[in-house]
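in:
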């Protein structure tokens, strides 16, 4: 028998001097910032958070097992119940509507972005008539039913999938499993991104099925591709290559180490009536043997290289070598779009790494644009930990 999550009257009191980041917008309370717990509270309950003088900062979900025992949901003294969740999801939907999402051209977008929508540990991505939910905190895990109810009421989705992150579930102490949570069971779903038709497998793909955070940068690449010889590295579903091909590229080559990804790129190219040469290969090996100075636009969007701080030195070397190889394949005046999704590599460090790659390659680099996640991925002010995606657009000489 499971215990229903409570919105308890307990208060978490911080050590003196540890409240300032939270007063100024940071949503996380680290374990070493907590002085004491006043009242009875169980893991997953809602709690009040107070500074050392007893002043209420806000309310959030509590999990003493986590290195982040409290994650704030609100700065008001309000209950964290089903009505609260419905209200936050309704508010998130309104924000996306102001961004023009969904639209006739785009039906793939992020509806809920965890801390950015005051729903820490909850991500909801929409693919046409389908919602895909990823839960990464105990507090949200125990409120699954209320979340699914709210999504059904707000979206009227045909299917709601839940995709599991086993690593987060283990850290937070809850059972995780990918499944069809509500509605019609389907292997794949279809949606539009800027008029491009994409087929997504929520239970068999990365993240919730796609990397929606790159949508606006994919569109930007389309505007830079006319007449260019384009190379899309770590292509996955082929989003960058599809935009480039539609934007008038002279040729598009998409490289991914996964045979399944290559087949997906080929299928997407056929569906959208564009030509892409999809290549199954390790990106490092492919770039090492590529003809020097043979591409006019190269996109490198690798997986996370630094999953923890202990990985930073290896990640630095990997990013530097990858960028150097890509620049060697750039024609003079080519555009390089280089990305890092490693949260532990900050923006300043990443730019320095890319500059070191240019030195290694013997090329000159001009950065002309800095980008991050798309606008449907909002963040609280004063929360640099949420700024995981760094994108540089550069000219290579």
């Amino acid at each position: 028998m499971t215990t229903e999550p409570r919105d308890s009257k307990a208060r978490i009191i911080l050590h003196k001097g540890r409240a300032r980041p939270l007063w100024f917008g940071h949503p996380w309370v680290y374990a070493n910032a907590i002085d004491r717990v006043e009242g009875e509270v169980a893991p997953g309950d809602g709690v009040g958070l107070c500074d050392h003088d007893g002043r209420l900062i806000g309310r959030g979900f509590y999990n003493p097992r986590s290195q982040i025992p409290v994650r704030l949901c609100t700065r008001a003294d309000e209950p964290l119940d089903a009505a609260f969740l419905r209200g936050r999801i309704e508010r998130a939907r309104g924000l996306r509507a102001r961004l023009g999402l969904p639209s006739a051209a785009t039906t793939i977008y992020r509806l809920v972005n965890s801390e950015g929508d005051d729903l820490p540990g909850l991500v909801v991505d929409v693919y046409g008539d389908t919602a895909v939910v990823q839960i990464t905190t105990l507090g949200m895990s125990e409120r699954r039913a209320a979340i699914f109810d709210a999504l059904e009421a707000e979206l009227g989705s045909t299917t709601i999938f839940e995709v599991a992150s086993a690593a987060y579930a283990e850290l937070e102490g809850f059972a995780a499993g990918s499944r069809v949570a509500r509605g019609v069971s389907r292997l794949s779903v279809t949606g539009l991104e800027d008029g491009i038709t994409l087929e997504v497998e929520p239970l068999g793909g990365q993240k919730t099925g796609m990397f929606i955070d790159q949508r606006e940068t994919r569109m930007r690449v389309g505007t830079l591709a006319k007449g260019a010889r384009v190379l899309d590295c770590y292509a996955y579903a082929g989003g960058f290559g599809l935009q480039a091909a539609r934007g008038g590229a002279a040729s598009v080559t998409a490289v991914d180490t996964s045979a399944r990804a290559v087949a997906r790129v080929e299928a997407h190219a056929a569906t959208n009536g564009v030509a892409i040469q999809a290549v199954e290969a390790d990106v490092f090996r492919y770039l090492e043997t590529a003809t020097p100075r043979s591409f006019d636009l190269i996109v490198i969007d690798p997986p996370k290289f630094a999953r923890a701080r202990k990985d930073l030195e290896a990640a630095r070397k990997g990013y530097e070598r990858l960028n150097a190889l890509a620049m060697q394949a750039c024609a003079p005046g080519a555009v390089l779009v280089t990305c890092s999704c490693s949260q532990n590599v900050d923006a300043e460090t990443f730019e320095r790494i890319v500059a070191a790659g240019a030195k290694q390659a013997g090329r000159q680099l001009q950065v002309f644009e800095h980008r991050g996640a798309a606008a449907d991925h909002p963040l609280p002010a004063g929360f640099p930990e949420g700024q995981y995606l760094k994108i540089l657009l550069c000219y290579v000489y």
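note: The CA atoms of residues 13 and 117 lie 24 Å apart.
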